[in-house]
């Protein structure tokens, strides 16, 4: 097994959680009402906790003096390998819930498979994450239904959010060299095998929400290869500001 390929695989999972956590943290004190503000804050903390577990593991694989903080705060946007969907702006509340719904449905299935990994550390992280993603999915899917089957305005905004973010969903199931190598080693997940179940889950929720599944949408990808939208650079400039301004500061 190549330690370098395992490092890249683990780092990718950490990047997804870190970037999504940062996005959700931007809702703090801005939630539509108090309970939802707290819910989004807690989900954001779950993402940061998951990111820390993956990045600490990645840092140990990298060796030398590398730390999880180094991986989070000392890389530029081309060195991040998160899914493009994770970095998309929050927009209105419907946009955030649609983005979360797509990702929650994916990671609920993904971590169920990753829990079977022969890498004990990845399996342990996955088993912990399953409990969190089960709640996250229940939360986001209920909001999709509530807004989709709500007022004319909420329905329109949720349908627009689904349509606008759909182009980023195919990337969730793409398999690159690292993914295929980890699958061969019985460490990683074959994302292609969970696509049908993800489609079924999405269709069921959209149907209950009286929303339409987008058709004939041009799909885009590249996040795993470091090709991102402009939004990631802006996000990193905020997230990494303190470390960039005061390198290795301690307090």
CATH topology: Ferritin
Strand tally is 0
Q: State the CATH class.
A: Mainly Alpha
Structural class call reads mainly alpha
Mean pLDDT over the full residue set = 95
How many domains, in number, for the residues?
A: 1
Beta-sheet strand percentage? under 5%
- Tell me which CATH architecture applies here: Up-down Bundle
CATH superfamily: Ferritin, core subunit, four-helix bundle
Largest sheet: none
Question: Residue share in helices?
Answer: 55-70%
Distance between the termini: 39 Å
Unreliable runs: none
Approximate shape: globular
Number of helices: 11
Q: Gyration radius, to the nearest Å?
A: 18 Å
Q: Tell me the series of helices and strands, N- to C-terminal.
A: HHHHHHHHHHH
Describe it.
Helix content is 65%, strand content 0%. By secondary structure, the chain is an all-alpha fold. α5 runs antiparallel to α9. The mean pLDDT is 95. The chain starts with a helix and ends in a 6-residue tail after the last helix.
Short note summarizing the structure:
The chain is mainly α and 251 residues long. It contains 11 helices and no strands. It has one domain (3-213, 220-245): Ferritin, CATH 1.20.1260.10.
